[in-house]
Amino acid sequence: MRTDEPLPAVGDVLAALATGLWHWDTADKLVIVDAEAARLLGLPAASATLTEAQTRARLHPADWNEITAVVQLAVAEGTLAEVRVRIMDEEGTVLRVVRSRSKPSYDAERRAYVLTGTLQEVAEPGPDPAGGRTAVTGPWRRSREAFLLDAGRALAEARSTAEVLRVAAGLSMPGFSPNGLVVFGVEGDRLTMIGHHGHQSDEMGPFTSMPLGLEYPAAEVVRTGQAVYLSSPEEYRDRYPVTWPLARPFGRSSWAFLPLTVGGRTMGAWMAGFAHTVRFTPDERAVLTTVARMLAQALSRAETAESERELTEGLQRSMLPSLGPEVPGVRIAARYIPTGGGLQVGGDWYDMIPLPAGRFALVIGDVQGHDVRAAGLMGQLRIALRAYASEGHRPDAVLSRASRFLHGMTNDEETSDPRFATCLYVAVDPVSGRLEIARAGHPDPVIRMADGTVMLRPTAGGLPLGIDPDADYPTTRFALQPGETLMLCTDGLIETGGHDLDSGWLRLRSILERHEDDLEALADALVQGVHGPSSHHTTGPLADRREDDIALLLLCRPGPGCGCADTVTVRPRVRRMLHSVGQDEPERIAVARRNVRDLLHDWAAPDQVDSAELLVSEMVTNVLVHTDADALLLVEVVEEDGRRRLRVEVFDSGDDLPHKRRPGELASSGRGLLLIGLLAHAWGVDPRGEGKSIWFELYEGPGEPGGGVPGEGVPGDGESSVVEGP
User: CA–CA separation, 49 vs 31, rounded Å?
Assistant: First the structure.
C-alpha cells in the first residue's frame, strides 16, 4: 500500500478479521452491535440495538455475572476488561465461545458504566491442567464464590481491628493463597503498618512507618488508588529498585498491593505476598479486589467502633465515681460493664457517698433505656442522690426526694419522654456492720455468709423512681456479720444469656458459693462467669458485646472465710441469719420460710428442711396473732463433732408464756407446741428480762425427733390462759 493511500475504515478491517464491535450503556440498558457482533451472538448478521435482557438471553447465565465482575474490576484498576463467554442458542446449546475486550468507564452522575469493545470467536477451551481454573467454567469458580461468601461473612462479624486482621490472616484463597499479609494505614504524610501475618516482628521494622512519597508499591497504591501486581522478583526489582532490597529477604515470588478504599477515600493498602508465582489473571485479580473492598469496609467499621468505645470510656469515666481510699472495717469492689449496642452508654450506675460520723452510703441503680438520654439522666440522678444524702436524710427520704426529682425532669411537656429508674440505697456503719436499706423496684441484695452459704436478702421496697412523686420507700435494717459479703447488682448481671431472674440468680449463687479468693477476684469472677472476660473501667478495656448494662457492688466485713488477704481464709463452721417480722408485715412470714430453706440448701435430710419451715411459720405466726409485739427470728447452723445442728429461736417482747394444750379434733388452734414436740429433737421456752424466746433444735441426718427434753422454763402440760396459734 502506498503511503498516500487512505487507510481502510476500522469497521472494514475488523469485519475482515471476524471481529465485531459493540457498545453498552448500563443507564440506557441498551447494547448496540454491528453485523459481525450480531452474527457472533447467534443473531442475523445485521447491525442492531438490543436490550440487556435480549443480550443476556444469548449468553450462558454464569457468564453474565462474570462480565459484571470483570467490568467493575477493570474500572477499579483502570485496565481493559477481558472475559470469555459462551454463546447459547434457543435450546441452550453452546454455539461458540467468544472473547470480549473493552475499556469501561464509570459515570458517577448517572451511576452507570459505559463500555465500547470487540467480540472475537476463540477455540473452546479444553480440560484445564490446573483443575478447571478458567474464566468460563470449572470448579474453581464455584470454590471462589464459596470463599468470597465465607470471607464476607467473617469480615462482617469482626468488631475490632485485631479481629479483622485475624480474619484476614486466616483467609485461604482458592488456588493461590498468600503466605504473608500486611495492612498499611495512613497517618498524615506517612504510610504506617497496622498489622501483619506470616512475618517475624523483628523483620518488619522498616515497614512500620514510611514516607508516602517513597518508591514503594504500597505507597504508590495509596497515592494513586490503583492496584499494583508484581508477578516475579524481576518485575519488582525493575519497577521499585530503591525498596527491592527490603522485600528480597522474604524470598517471595509474587506480590499484590491493593488499595483499601471506603467512600471514595483510600485509607490504606493491603499487601498479599505469595511463595509461588501467580500470573494474576482477571479472575485472581477479581478475588483480590473483592477481598480488599471487604477488608476496607471491615477496618472502617472497626475504626468507628473503637472510636465510639474510646468516647464511651471517657464519658463513663467522667460519670462514675472512684471508690476512693479504703474504709476501715470493710472492703468494697465495683464493676461497670456497658451494653454492646450503639455508643455503649446506658443508665446503670453505682456510687459511694460519704456520710457523717464515719458512715457511708452505697447506691446502685438503672435508668430505663440504653441511649445517651439514659446516660444523661443517670448523671443527673446520681448528683441529686448525693445532694440528698449529704443533707443528712435517711434512706427512705433520700429515695422519696429522688423519685420526685426524676418525675419532674421526665414528665414535663417539653421532654415528652417519661423515664423511670430502679435504685437500691444502703447506708453502712462500717464499725458495727449495721445496714439501712431502701429499695425502689430494684433486685434485692444478696448475702454471702462466712461459710459460703449464699442467700437473697429480701427487703421492703417501693415503686421505681420517677413513677409516683409521692411514693413511699420503707427501710429494712440488719447487720452484716464479720466474714459476710453483701452483693448489689443491676438486672443485667442476672438476666443475660436468656436467663430470667430465677435461673440467673441460681447461676450467680453457684459462682458466689464456690469462689474463695479476695473481693476483687470475686467481682471479676461474677462478671466473667455470665458475660466472658471484662473488667472495671479503671483496669482495662471494655468488652465488645453486652446484652445489657451491668453495675456490681460488693461489700464485705473482713473475717474468717471472707477471702480477704488480711484475714484467715478457713471458713467458720457457723452460719447465722436474723430476720424481723413486724405486726403489720405478715407477708414476711413467707420470706422467713424461704430464708430458712436457703440457709439449709445443702442439708442432708429434705424432710427436716420441710419440718423447719413449718415450725418457723408456726412460731412467728403465734407471736403476731397472740401478742402485740414484733417477732425476731434467729437461725443458726452449727457443726459439732462432724454433725450439724440447726437451732431456731423466735424472740418477742410479750411476757405471757405459751403452754401445751390438748386441742379437740375441730379446734383451730393449740397445736403449735405439739408440732414442735413431735418434729424437733429439742425445744424450749426461755423467759428474758423483757419478753421471751421460743426455740427448737434439729440434728442433721438420721435420728427420730420428738425425743428431746424441753428446756428449762417450759410450762407443764396444763392448759394456759394464753391461746396458742395454730
Answer: 6
Q: Of the candidates 135, 164, 163, 167, which has an alpha carbon nearest to the alpha carbon of residue 69?
A: 135
Cα Rg, the chain, nearest whole Å: 40
CA–CA distance, 256 with 273 (Å, rounded to integer): 7
User: How far from 168 is each of 36, 50, 260, 298, CA to CA, in Å?
Assistant: 46, 43, 13, 10
Which is more confidently placed, 306 or 354?
A: 354
Q: From residue 299, how far is each of 189, 263, 294, 480, 646 by CA, in Å? A: 20, 13, 9, 51, 62
CA distances from 236 to 93, 251, 288, 292 (A): 45, 12, 19, 21
Specify the pTM.
Answer: 0.56
Q: How far apart are CA 285 and CA 74, in angstroms?
A: 10
CATH code for the domain in which residue 61 is found: 3.30.450.20
User: Is residue 69 included in any domain, yes or no?
Assistant: yes
Whether the predicted pLDDT of 718 surpasses 70: no
Say how far apart CA 549 and CA 546 lie, in whole Å: 7
Grid cell digits, residue 237: 526489582
Crossing angle for the helix pair 372-390 and 282-319, to the nearest 10 degrees: 20
b/e map 127-154, b = 16+ CB within 10 Å: eeeeebbbbbbbebbebbeebbeebbeb
In a domain, 566, yes or no: no
Report the alpha-carbon distance of residue 386 to residue 350 in Å, rounded. 11
Helices 372-390 and 395-410 meet at what angle, rounded to 10?
A: 140
* 97 strand-pairing partners: 86, 122
Q: Within this chain, do residues 40 and 148 fall inside the same structural domain, yes or no?
A: no
**Does residue 181 sit in the same domain as residue 307?**
yes
The lowest-confidence range among 40-49, 328-337, 459-468, 710-719 is 710-719
Give residue-wise pLDDT tens across range 620-645. 988 888 888 888 888 988 887 778 89
For the chain, the straight-line distance linking the first and the last C-alpha, in angstroms and rounded, comes to 129
Under DSSP, the state recorded for 716 is -
Residue 357: left (phi > 0), alpha (psi -120 to 50), or beta? Answer: left
Q: What are phi and psi of 120, to 5 degrees?
A: -145, 135
Domain boundary among 89, 124, 159: 124
CB 534 within 8 A of CB 575: no
Q: Does residue 343 contact residue 370 with C-beta atoms inside 8 Å?
A: no
How many CB atoms are closer than 10 A to CB 664? 7
Residues 302 and 404 grouped into a single domain: no
Q: How many structural domains does the chain have? A: 4
For 7, counting Cβ atoms within 10 Å of its Cβ (0-12 exposed, 13-18 middle, 19+ buried), the class is: exposed
Reduced to 3 states (helix: H, G, I; strand: E, B; else coil), residue 272 is strand
- pLDDT of residue 169 exceeding 90, the answer is no
Which stretch of DSSP H or E encloses residue 374?
Answer: helix 372-390
Structural contact between residues 561 and 483, judged by C-beta atoms closer than 8 angstroms: yes
Shared domain for 324 and 305, answered yes or no, is no
> Which residues span the domain enclosing 537?
320-556
* DSSP letter, residue 669: S
Region of residue 210 (left: phi > 0; alpha: psi -120 to 50; beta: else):
beta
